[in-house]
Amino acid sequence: MASKDGKKLKLGFVEEEEEYPNVSPKKSVKKGKPQNIFDLDLSPSSGSHEKEYRKLSLNIMEGKINLDAELYSLQPIPFQTVKLFLTKTLPELGWGQSNEEETLFDAGCGPGGTTTKLILPLFPRLKKCFAVDILPGMIDSAKKHNFDPKIEYSVANLADWSSLEHFENQITKFVSVYCFHWLKDPRKGFENAFRLLKPGGEAAITCVLESSYYSTLIEMHNNPEWTNLFQNVDYVPTFQKYKHDGAYCKKMAEDIGFEVLYCKDEKKTNVFRSDKERKDFFWSICVLRPYIHSDRKKAFEQEFLEVLDKLNDIKDASLLLQKDKILEIVIKKPEF
User: Fold this and answer.
1) Measured between alpha carbons, how far is 252 from 237 in angstroms, rounded to an integer?
2) Domain of life here (predicted)?
3) Would 53 disulfide with which of 44, 143, 236, 282, CB 3.0-4.6 Å?
4) For 95-110, how does the pLDDT look when each residue is reduced to its tens digit (9 = 90+)?
């Protein structure tokens, strides 16, 4: 795939283009910058953030990540394991029990269904929720379909500190659901979460370490009929490519400066509510989707689901199961 100027495009996962300073526990405020997030206009049309928004929009246009906001569910992510983590595990760890007002940050909010239906109810004393996604289409959909007066949706890139720095040291709770595996360098996401949190603030992250979905794409890559689609496409996440596990993520978080309160990796099975929901979900996150010719999409989708069922060891096609190795981690920024 080439751009208009003839350059090859890197497709697939979010990849930062430059290195940023090492994480520091000390707050630094650049001269002339607003010092409180509640004073900022975060809308894409805001002059103060026009440069950042244009930069993010360019990243999307270059095809570094492709998700379909129309197909992606407007409801919470359709996995029971996500619901259990948010509604059972986090309350057991004390989330939602603070007597102080909370300032929440939802990284990778998508169209906002999980934010409004599962995350917000955790916080009876919520002051504000800042929900961000790298895709403008997701944010537009969230504003339209999942509005809440306590949520401020905006475009931002978890791997790019320049799009997040106005939130520095002002977040009490950071949540990210099925976002970190999209990052080319997940460590950058953990580092930026550390910088966003106030001292004593906590982050809850759940993401995919290994998935039959990506294994399916690997197998289809070996089929000559589809091989050309995979040229210049980085479609396997770092976690799966290097077989990173919970112990690796725990050490990484500790090296950054976090205290690890809870860490678990486990193979989990989720059930889709309908065949349409399953097809729409996987098709919406398929990085190859925009590059498959319209008359080949049905054949690609059919083969994809057949290979996926084979890898999930599903003999009965009516069993709408998905098997993944999932990371759940809750970490705390020390109180200095």
Assistant:
1) 17
2) Eukaryota
3) 44
4) 999 999 999 999 999 9
